[in-house]
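re the bet — no i am not wrong, look at it urself. input seq straight from the record:
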Amino acid sequence: MPLKEATYREKILLYLAKNPGNNITGNKISNDLDLFYSLVHKTIKDLEKDGLLKIEKVGNYKLLKLSLDRHRTLLELALLSHRLKEEREKEGKIDSRINMFLGRITGEKDVLSIILSDKDVFIISNNVTMHLEIMSKTADIGKEISIIKHDEFGRMLSDEQFAGRMLDGIVLHGYENFWRMIAEIK
């Protein structure tokens, strides 16, 4: 798990966020993250009570999904993204060139979110004409830069399982916008 001192709650939220639309059970989370099932089960109940999770019963299985239509869920995911970014910066795992690049384009009015993956930086934008302006501000940051129109993002998520490619779930800018876009797609 990328967060050094992550709680069960944070680990489960990040796991579900990186696997949107998948059929996930508490047992799968417990096995994949190597966590105690009893504590996972208790945390899932707490998340459901807080309104962050929806549980759908299918036969003997309880399938878990984030309640992305709730503002509180978006806020918690945004805070986790921010915390991940800060931790990775302290560890030196986010290059200073990327931070300089972000500083240049963060003020652009049509940039909704910036997401970091292992090999790419994805910029989600509202406006096609901004693409040339954004690209003109790029330096060699050691990663490929992809600019995605907001309305094409939904297709990309469903076709390529985009969220699973994110580096530790890090959204570098526009945290809440990113999770809101994921909610719109669902």
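see?? The chain has two domains: 8-66, 92-185. told u. also The beta strands are 53-58, 61-66, 111-117, 120-125, 144-149, 166-173. so pay up
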